[in-house]
């Protein structure tokens, strides 16, 4: 059986940058704390913790003094930087450049429009680390929606600035924009295109993966998708594979792979989330290749 790894799978630039920054400090003998999990992958977390990386929550962060703390690729709200300054904490800022740019856009737009009654609406997942950092740019005044919740909080007669969490599904984002346009029309407000301003803030590395992943999943008899169970990006990308190829399986470790999945198959494809390390994807390939089915 032929086993192929999707060349576009694995760490995106932002995650790879954060992991490399952490490794550099750890290998230099520094004590480093990570504010939240550096990546949504338990096996990679375990590897880094063995090097000395300690994951902390916000309550623990507020109690720290005179130390180094890593800000992961998801980014943080302004409050985190304020606490760090007050507590003499050195921040290793590994915020993804795409997320950092989005934070700046949201903060700028909020400052420009808040006195004029404008609204900032963010399409994202409630409680997600990146979303907390984005909403924080508006003093937590932005309206968060996943396409369904909180739509009733939007005033469709006033200016709306719509942004998206960088890892959301592009089609779902477009559908939300259409839904808002319909509600503006239904409210009787003229010229809805003057009310709604949509900003294309989904990471191109994520949005461009969908058509490629569909082709990859379609061209293999069986798909093994490798991702941490808590990765929202992983769940979204796996759903794309499953829709195209019903013989798609989600695994978080090589131990979860079952030999019977490959019986009667001629080839298998392996892909993963933007938070899946390359070494783990290679281990999965080694396990599948050893079956000799």
What are the defining features of this structure?
Cobalt-precorrin-4 Transmethylase, domain 1, alpha/beta, 12 helices, 293 residues, Rossmann fold, single chain, four-stranded parallel sheet
Any chance you could write out the topology, listing elements then pairs?
Elements: E1 2-5, H1 13-27, E2 32-35, H2 42-51, E3 54-56, H3 58-63, E4 68-71, H4 78-86, E5 90-93, H5 97-113, E6 119-123, H6 129-136, E7 143-145, E8 160-164, H7 170-186, H8 192-195, E9 196-198, H9 204-207, H10 209-218, E10 222-226, H11 232-244, E11 248-251, E12 267-272, H12 278-289
Parallel strand pairs: 1-12, 2-3, 2-4, 4-5, 6-7, 6-8, 8-9, 10-11, 10-12
Helix pairs in contact: 5-6, 10-11
Outline:
The chain has 293 residues and is an alpha/beta fold. The chain contains twelve helices and twelve strands. It folds into three domains: 2-9 and 207-289, Cobalt-precorrin-4 Transmethylase, domain 1; 13-96, Rossmann fold (3-Layer(aba) Sandwich), CATH 3.40.50; 98-165 and 168-201, 4-hydroxy-3-methylbut-2-enyl diphosphate reductase, catalytic domain (Cobalt-precorrin-4 Transmethylase, domain 1).
Please characterize this protein's 3D structure:
With 293 residues, this protein is an alpha/beta fold. It folds into three domains: 2-9 and 207-289, Cobalt-precorrin-4 Transmethylase, domain 1 (3-Layer(aba) Sandwich), CATH 3.40.1010; 13-96, Rossmann fold (3-Layer(aba) Sandwich), CATH 3.40.50.11270; 98-165 and 168-201, 3-Layer(aba) Sandwich (Cobalt-precorrin-4 Transmethylase, domain 1). 43% of the residues lie in helices and 17% in strands. It has twelve helices and twelve strands. Helix 2 (42-51) links the parallel strand 2 and strand 3 (54-56). The mean pLDDT is 94.
